[in-house]
Amino acid sequence: MVVGEDCFMLLPQTKLDRLLGDRTAKAFARHLGLVTVADLLQHYPRRYAVRGDLTPIAEVPIGEPVTVVAEIVDFKERRMSGKTSHLLEVRITDGSAFLTLTFFNQAWRQKDLKPGSRGLFAGKIGAFNGRLQLAHPEYELFDDEVDSAEAARWALQPIPIYPAASSVTTWAIGRAMGVVLDTLPALVDELPAEVVASEGLLALDDAMRKIHQPALAHDWQSARDTLRFHEAFVLQAALIRRKAELSHVTTDVRAVAADGLLAGFDASLPFELTAGQRSVGNEILEDLASGHPMNRLLQGEVGSGKTLVALRAMLAVAESGGQSAMIAPTEVLAAQHLASIRRTLGDDLAARLGVTLLTGSQNTADRKRALLQIVSGKAQLVVGTHALLADKVEFYDLAMVVIDEQHRFGVEQRETLRQKGRTAPHVLTMTATPIPRTLAVSVFGDLDISTLTELPAGRQAITSHVVQLSQPSLIARTWSRVAEEVAKGHQVFVVCPRISESEDEAEAPLELDADDDLFAVAADAGNSGLAIDANAAPKPRRPLAAVETMVEALRSNPVLAGLAIEPMHGALASELKNETMARFVAGEINVLVSTTVIEVGVDVPNATLMVVLDADRFGVSQLHQLRGRVGRGGNAGLCLLMTAAESGSLALERVRAVADTLDGFKLSEIDLELRGEGDVLGASQSGVRSSLRLLRVLRDADLIVRARELADNLLTADPTLEKHPNLAEVLTNLDAARQENLSKG
Ligand code: ADP
Ligand code: MG
């Protein structure tokens, strides 16, 4: 963790050992990653418990670490067989259900655990003989010697429940927080006083104390709102400033002529550009001619023709003598882009521009040749993978970088490419996951955003259907449909979530990041924080569909007899991958059984049918992406989403949502709602976004828009932040942390 990385406020960076002692500080660092006072202060409660409200025991999930508020009912002692061992069982209750605490050889705890007392009990819930139990729980009893005047206040006082570790309990965190807050100098607001006043916020110092030590529920609620606003405002100020900085950087002017390379190419196209392609193209030409580096995000519906927009931009750059590099997330996609660019340009033009491929798996000779072409400037148009980021790759005059499929790419990588130019190169980022505009502005607020909404004329709609495993006749129909499609001369994708059946569960594409939502539910009223994540797909009892198994199964399916059915996945040798892809493109393979390697970008116009197995294992946007691989060539596309998800389940609902709408923007909203933006956008997309604690882009969209407006006003009135030194300092810290992250690679 980089010092200052997550500091959206001016908080002391004092090391915790000075305040908490070595041992505690070490435990906090090791188990929770908290090193400084700033880290600890921003370790916000996940939720709040109230002494008066007992935790519903029936809802407590088995196998999860939990903290419950409960009352002790009674206890029972048992001598175990060997006479030496002693078992103490203590029953606690929420008033309806019971939970048993068990202690071995700790008879002395009886004195502690008196019936009628209430307290916090923490541990992992197990089930034993049909009873819920907590073995050797940590606990802290409420002090019940309060006089009656105090009692009401005491019963209502919220107790923060922190994200904890088994060796660092929530009350240990609470105590440490107390120590830190007692000696904490008054915090100063980085927010301008006018903003604090106009938004009705608490002072930062007040908010920080109240989120950790609220007297009433209202305290932490307003504290949380205030701290959320701090995050939103500072994030937006940072993005706006970053964008402004780029507008001060100068770079070569890249202008195109009315009868130049680009014009000639346009004239040779066998189709008309869509209105969107034309207008976005013009925006890009203006950027290139502006003398300042472009930093543009191009988002567009699947199949809207983003690659062509990028190619035209690359031609404009080539016309001005510069090089451009297009970087794709996978080798398959890089090879595809290369092939389709060559095809679109035609052999002559492709040769003239020295269209060159650079990937990690090339043999040494090819690679040497490519590097030479690139450094000499002969390669004006380079297509590649991450390999393009390597230090060894030097460009003669890198003028533009195109990043395909943004969601696989972090801000750091964008920056690495940027540093390869002689002058600051233009950056065009394309994303296949459309993001609703307000969100895009708030997350990619340092980029200009262009959107392609229409599909090229003549494109056929894709029809999608859900096939439940409980409908055997539909499954049989699916495979005969595959045969029919091939008989018509078309091709089919069959997509599986796994490569082989033995593959580790952990590699499931939809594996949720357990930590990600820790803070999402932080301090959310009404959220118990105890419920099992409702979004997690149910663990299937049968193995998930795997490419290797499926290839065999389909080859031996009589309905598909005689068809060329081949596997495709990331673990294949890259030569085999390229060869397989080439054979599929050439129509030699009828059915490609694949993992999500084909998710992005792959363009095989003759493919008309896609069958997705265990569709509920994929994200909503991911399914939309996958489906975009069919129906690209003027033939109607069909997508069959097979799933074992049961009727009424959330998993089925997600798959249905995909079948029911073709609008990628709408689906990305659904996806965001169901999965949380961390999963959809990727944590590293914005250098600062990943350190957000309380803010959630979707839920807080209005707040973010408001914060952006205020930050914009402020920076317009005071661009150098002369009158706002505290804010300036926070932003400087953030930038420094970002630079440090970048230089670490
Ligand atoms: P995506 O936006 O999903 O990356 P692509 O760039 O792969 O879409 O384009 C999809 C297909 O549409 C390609 O085969 C491409 O050649 C074709 N295409 C692009 N623009 C047009 C257009 N204006 N008219 C017809 N076809 C087009
Ligand atoms: Mg594409």
Task: Tell me the span between the first and last alpha carbons.
Answer: 14 Å
Task: Look at the structure and give the CATH class of one domain.
Answer: Alpha Beta
Q: Strand sequence of the main sheet, in spatial order?
A: 11-12-10-13-14-9-15
| Helical content (DSSP H or I, runs of 4+) | 25-40%
Which cofactor or ligand species appear?
adenosine-5'-diphosphate, magnesium ion
Per DSSP E runs of 2 or more residues, the count of β-strands stands at 21
Round the Cα radius of gyration to an integer and report it.
29 Å
The CATH architecture of one domain:
3-Layer(aba) Sandwich
What is the general shape? globular
Low-confidence stretches: 504-540, 676-690
Give the topology.
Layout: H1 17-20, H2 22-32, H3 37-41, E1 47-50, E2 65-79, E3 86-93, E4 98-104, H4 109-112, E5 118-128, E6 131-135, E7 138-141, H5 148-156, E8 158-161, H6 170-183, H7 193-198, H8 204-212, H9 217-248, H10 261-268, H11 275-289, E9 295-300, H12 306-319, E10 323-327, H13 331-345, H14 347-352, E11 356-358, H15 364-376, E12 381-384, E13 398-403, H16 411-418, E14 426-431, H17 437-443, E15 448-452, E16 462-468, H18 472-487, E17 491-495, H19 547-555, E18 565-568, H20 574-585, E19 591-594, E20 607-612, H21 620-627, E21 637-643, H22 650-660, H23 664-675, H24 677-681, H25 701-717, H26 725-744
Parallel strand pairs: 4-6, 9-14, 9-15, 10-12, 10-13, 11-12, 13-14, 16-21, 17-19, 17-20, 18-19, 20-21
Antiparallel strand pairs: 1-8, 2-3, 2-5, 3-4, 5-6, 5-7
Helix pairs in contact: 8-9, 9-25, 10-12, 11-12, 13-20, 17-25, 21-22
This protein binds adenosine-5'-diphosphate and magnesium ion.
